[in-house]
Amino acid sequence: MIVCVAVVGHQNNPLYIQSFTEADDALKLHHIVHCSLDVVDERVNNPKKSGLTLNETFLGLLYPTENYKVYGYLTNTKVKFILVTTDLDVRDADVRNFFRRFHAAYVDAVSNPFHVPGKKITSRTFAERVSNIVKSFGLSSAG
Amino acid sequence: MANYLAQFQTIKNSCDHVVIAVEDVSDLWPNIKSGFEERVPIKRASLNNKTRNPVLVENFPCEFILTTDSRLRSRFPQEQSLFWFREPYATIVLVTCEDLDEFKTILKPRLKLIVQNDEKEWFIVFVSRAHPSNDNAVKMAKKVYAKLEVDFSSKKRERCCKYDIHGPEANFWDDLESKIMECVRNTLDRRVQFYEDEIRKLTEQRFMPVWNFCNFFILKESLAFMFEMAHLYEDALREYDELELCYLETVNMPGKQRDFGGVDHGDDWAALLNSENKPLTQIVQDDSFREFEFRQYLFAYQSKLLFKLNRPFEVASRGHSFIIGFSKALTLHENMLPFCMREVWVITACLAIINATASPNYDGLVAPDIEKEFYRLKGDLYSLCRVKFMRLAYLIGYGADIERSPVNSALLSMLPWPKPPVWPSVPPDASPEVLEKEKVILQASPLIKHFGIQRKPLPLEPSVLLREANRRRASLSAGNVFEMFDGRPTLIDGSASDASSRTPLSKKMNAISMSRTNSSPGTFDGSVDRPMRLAEIYVAAEHALKHTISDADLWKALSSVEKFEQKYLELTKGAADNYHHSWWKRHGVVLDGEIAAVCFRHGNFDLAAKSYEKVCALYAGEGWQELLADVLPNLAECQKMLNDQAGYLASCVKLLSLDKGLFSTKERQAFQAEVLRLAHSEMKDPVPLDVSSLITFSGNPGPPLELCDGDPGILSVTVWSGFPDDITLDSLNLTLTATFNADEGAKALRSSTATILKPGRNTITLALPPQKPGSYVLGVLTGQIGQLRFRSHSFSKVGPVDSDDFMSYEKPTRPILKVFKPRPLVDLAEAISSALLINETQWVGVIVRPIDYSLKGAVLYIDTGPGLNIEESHVIEMETCVNISQSSAEMTNSNGTQKDCSSASKKEFQQLKLQDGRIEFPAWASDVNSVLWIPVRAISDRLPRGSSSVTSQKQSNLDGMRTIALKLEFGVSHNQIFERTVAVHFTDPFHVSTRVADKCNDGTLLLQVILHSQVKATLTIYDAWLELQDGFIHTGQGTGRPTSSFFPLMISPTSRAGIMFSISLGKVIDKDEVEELQTDSILNIRYGIYGERTNGAHPPVSMDGTEPEDARQDLLFKSAIVLQRPVLDPCLAVGFLPLPSTGLRVGQLITMQWRVERLKGLEDNGISEHNQGEVLYEVSANSENWMLAGRKRGHVTLSTIQGSRIVISVLCVPLVAGYVRPPQLGLPDVDESNISCNPPGPHLVCVMPPALSSSFCIPP
Questions:
Q1: Which has fewest Cβ within 10 Å: B1, B182, B530, B552?
Q2: Which one of A35, A37, A80, A88 would you mutate to disrupt binding with B, by most B Cβ within 10 Å of its Cβ?
Q3: Domain that residue B715 falls in
Q4: pLDDT digits (tens, 9 = 90+) for B1177-1211
Q5: Can you say how many angstroms the Cα of residue B526 is from the centroid of all Cα atoms in its chain?
Q6: Of the spans B148-157, B796-805, B891-900, which averages the highest pLDDT?
Q7: How does DSSP classify residue B945?
């Protein structure tokens, strides 16, 4: 289950963060997303070590923790997408697909002429679309 | 073969270096042993690794063992092949011989026998015992050695070397070492080949049922061990890696249910770095090993080799993934392991790796990025350890001491509870402990957040422990737990979604554990029906853990809250420190916050504040407001405790400036109340405070305020207040920054009165003193609230500063104020340029023309120059300007907005009073052009003189010029000053010139008086009479008045009129009375004037102002007239003698001649001459026209007798062609009226152009 998705700006400022847990514990997910920026930074700053080619937007698994997984995605404008999931067996292809759709949704959201670049994304349409993407991610991984 | 396992282990433990066999044929070893053994370990050796590439090994260890030694003798052939790695790698044959025959007959066959075994790598050391002084013996030894070489060495390989016992040759030892290493290398290669072949064979059978992992393991490890003996650690490590891979494949093969292991006492203590923990024989299971022990065993060997390779970084990195992976394996087998075995194992494993890699000597060994990675891994290990440790602590009831921070919540609430087959139950004799725990639970009060902030605490548990524990105990209904127990709500809160989020896998696990629970009812002693209370769960867990944990230190750390906290701090600090050294700064800083929380609980506010500050800076810097809102109140509380007022205030302000949705209004009001309380009461000294995020300001929309140079103004600024309530600012300053000049300091505008800011938008007006020209932008807003000096740098465009606009303090580029460069704002000019009447009260008009600038409240200072008086008793009139004169129309300013006077809406007129030389302008005059009429009188006591044809009098305009200095003070605060001196021309109404029109025979002279009107007004002459000077009388008995029917005589502006007077010569009065006689005739004219003051001269202003407009005002004009004496009077006559008839030419020298003749004898002449008979003459000429030669001035003798004459001649050269005035002769000593001139007036002569210069044209 995806518990949290987030968009983080190029100055590491949160642009959009949405948790999908029922409990009132969004703060811990904020923490997870925030700390995962360490890994993103590290990957971006040491492309050689991580074996990551800079052409690749998908950063892969950021956190190999026992209980949840954090995936990252870096757009070419240095906007990061973070995905936190409690599914421990996730296929990479699913995540890539998720991020691709998420990226498309993000691009649509920031293309809104009333959106101020670098400001939080408040679009309800975007939120709905993200929620749909998240839901369908759950389905595809179950199926 | 698996039976050899024990033996294999023993062998491995007993031998750890390469053995070199010494075949001591001639009993030489005891003598040379020491020399040989000194050489080991061999400094440098070249070996081949597994891929047959040469590798340089340093300090290669080896041992010399005689073949007769028991260690080499008693071995069975099968053992030898299996444990081949321990067999000698080289054989040194030691021989000596001093006799060729002996060599041939005895030694050689024996040697042949020894070396015939192909398996062995051997070489012969010939020991020469011959003393160097004994030449014979030396020679013999050489001979034998030569023979030996022939027999045993081949072209391919040197197998002999010679050792001189009395002094070995210099290169002997090198030779020996290289020979040893050659043998070792060959042997090693051969054995590696052997093992590889064997392993390959086994690998091929891997999927056959006969396959036995133990056999494979022995072979593989033998090879690895052999590499290790040869110091080829890389190869050894590779073997172990392959071994591990192979093992993981086999162990995960389905179908074979194996014991996992880990159920022995002490297994919880991770042995991943201790290979000797358990003998392998104990962990053998069927044809393989138990996973729990064996994987740790393999890792232990790998890390041992890595340490030998000096790669602790890799130990940490492999260790971390090993722990993670192994932990997963433990989870799979958790229902067979002791309670919390997994957690304990992870803790001990992490600590083991941390301790093993803790050596500080690694710094600088590797590239910085690897080092950073190393620290990151250590941080991860610490962090992992910390999580598990917290979990254990929570289980035994220290949950209240764990900060419910986001980081702890993230780590713990997503970590499932341990899943033992049966949740431990309370031991029978534990009721006192339960009571004590209950007491602790009851006493623990929920942590109250500062400022009365109410937040639901974050969960530390994946699901409610109470429910989880009871469910795992028995088939109790979990749904009733809430109703049945007074569980603490804070603990029951939190994620209740455990069941829904559980993966199918864990559901299956539950089912298994359920069935197990039911199948073993013996574990519950009667309490199976009653669900456990929380305290009981804690106690039960504590007992179970005590049973599980074999590490005394770890158990000690869990024995009390204090010990727990100590260990917790140690782990947190370790993690934070290591993260700080790595790339993962955020992890480090966040953990600093956890340390701070502990410090805070213990009242160590100083340390806590420092750490909290770092955390806050991190969150604030990147705009993570939700996280900041969680930790910032803690920092504020620390600062409050530390009495750090500045910091506390800053924190309060920061709290207020966070996103409004993050705190309730009540909480925000509490923050504001704190700020105000401090500001007004507690602080002694003013404290500076940056409120940029809270109070922002901007100029009003629209064009900037525009001011003229030197003008003050009022600036209106919009200020946004982020305070939840009204706030009173005791004072407010705003600086303006000039955009044109950065060096210019910012100007501060002050508003010292208290300002009340409402939440949201406020408009503030500030008085603006005069500024230098230029445009200005807003600078800094400063002010004071009580003792609080705040400042704000941030500008908002149209709304309050966006909460997430945290990094860009946008500088306003839009100027708020423009001060124009100095320009004319007003113009004062004389209304008329024509002359006014002198000596009469006249209106002087001054046009006041504002140039796009209001003259409201302007004051005009009038100061007249000499010879001019203002009639102060009279009012000054002011009216709108009807017609603007041409001169002022030209002065329209550049923007062309000059108002047309004539289009002024209404004609205004007002009478003003001059007070102390100043007049105040009426309001209507502020924007329109107006004329100020000032009554003045120009005083002149000089009698005007007429001119005649004889005495042409030059008229000087300057005589009638008067000046009025005007100073206009205007502008908002009379700051603008305009000064202008206006010149006014005054004049007499007439200029009089006279000439004698006719000279009658009876001596009557007709004197024509010509009156030139000097003013732009109609003059009417009512009467005129002439007061004659001495020597003249009116003809007849008249009074000198012309016929009265002439009058009134009207003279139009600038026209002329003439009056004839008939006079005749009278007798000359005696000399004595000369002084009292009038020398000039006076012309008196009574006249009136009709004129408009807008045009020029006009009737004088009546002083009382009551006289009707059309009343006639008779004015009197007097003018002196010079009347020339008749021609008979002259006593000297000057005649200009005719010029030559040829005419004058330029450049031609001519003689000018004047004849001076005395007309009267001196006796009857009143003219005084000092020098009798001498006359002073002077020739004057325009030097541009004439060049004079000879004396221009001088005395000539002229007899005093009447009729005497003399000629004065001067040489002249005309310089200019045309009609020019000739030089004139003057007699300065003689009065003009006594000289009769011929010609009488100025005359002209004609000068021809110069003749052509013919001298050059005529041929000689």
A1: B552
A2: A35
A3: 695-819
A4: 888 888 888 888 878 888 888 877 777 888 888 88
A5: 75
A6: B148-157
A7: B
Cα gap B907→B881, rounded to integer Å: 8
B65/B77 Cα distance (integer angstroms): 19
Are B804 and A120 a contacting pair at CB < 8 A?
Answer: yes
Interface of B with A (CB under 8 A): 321, 324, 327-328, 369, 373, 376, 406-407, 409-410, 413-416, 456, 458-459, 494-497, 500-501, 503, 583-587, 590, 619, 622-624, 626-627, 630, 802, 804-807
Enclosing H/E stretch for B578: helix B561-581
What is the set of domains in chain A, with CATH numbers?
2-142 (3.30.450.70)
> pLDDT, tens digit, for every residue of B269-286?
888 888 888 888 888 877
Could B414 and A87 be called an inter-chain contact, meaning their C-beta atoms sit closer than 8 Å?
Answer: no
Question: What is the amino acid identity at position B337?
Answer: L
Q: Compute the average pLDDT of residues B158-167.
A: 84
pLDDT digits (tens, 9 = 90+) for B258-273: 778 888 888 888 888 8
Q: Are B1036 and B986 in contact (CB under 8 A)?
A: no
CATH code, domain carrying B1186: 2.60.40.10
**Residue B9 placed within a domain:** no
Burial annotation B39-55 (CB, 10 A radius, 16+ → b, else e): ebebeebebbbbeeeeb
State whether B783 and B714 are in the same domain: yes
Q: Report which DSSP code applies to B915.
A: B
Report d(CA B331, CA A88) in Å as an integer.
13
Cα B829 from chain centre = 53
Which of B328, B330, B380, B414 is most worth mutating to test chain A (most A CB atoms within 10 A of its CB)? Answer: B414
Backbone angles phi, psi at B1203, to 5 degrees: 95, -10
Residues B92-113 as b/e (b if ≥16 CB within 10 A, e otherwise) read bbbbbbeeeeebeeebbeebee
Single-letter code of the amino acid located at B404: R
Q: Do B541 and B400 lie in a common domain?
A: yes
* Cβ pair A88:B327 closer than 8 A: no
Look at residue B371 and tell me if it is in a domain. Answer: no
Encode pLDDT of B933-973 as tens digits: 888 888 887 777 777 655 555 555 667 788 888 888 887 77
- Nearest Cα to B1119, choosing from B1251, B1038, B1014, B969? B1014
What ipTM was reported for this prediction?
0.93
Q: In Å, how far is A129's CA from the nearest CA of chain B?
A: 23
Q: Hey, what are B763's tokens? A: 């408009």
Chain B environment of A23 (Cβ under 8 Å)? 459, 494-497
The whole-angstrom separation of Cα B413 and Cα B394 is: 12
DSSP-based three-state secondary structure for B222: helix
Amino acid at A122: T
Residue B572's pLDDT band, with cuts at 50, 70 and 90, is very high
Q: Are B657 and B675 in contact (CB under 8 A)?
A: no
Tokens 């600590």 belong to B351
Number of domains in chain B: 8
DSSP state of B692: T
Taking Cα atoms as reference points, which of B959, B1022, B1020 lies closest to residue B986? B959
Angle between the N-to-C axes of helices B368-395 and B534-548, in degrees from 0 to 180, rounded to the nearest 10? 130
- Give the tokens for residue A49: 């070590």
Domain with B599 in it: what CATH number?
A: 1.25.40.10
The pLDDT value recorded for residue B808 is 42
- Residues in chain B with CB shorter than 8 Å from the CB of A141 are none
- Go through chain A and tell me how many residues it has: 143
What backbone torsions phi and psi does residue B725 show, to the nearest 5 degrees? -120, 175
Going through B71-145 in order, the beta strands assigned E by DSSP cover 90-95, 122-128
Q: Contact, B948 vs B962, CB < 8 A? A: no
Is residue B1047 predicted with pLDDT exceeding 90?
no
Say whether A87 and B456 touch across the interface (CB within 8 A). no
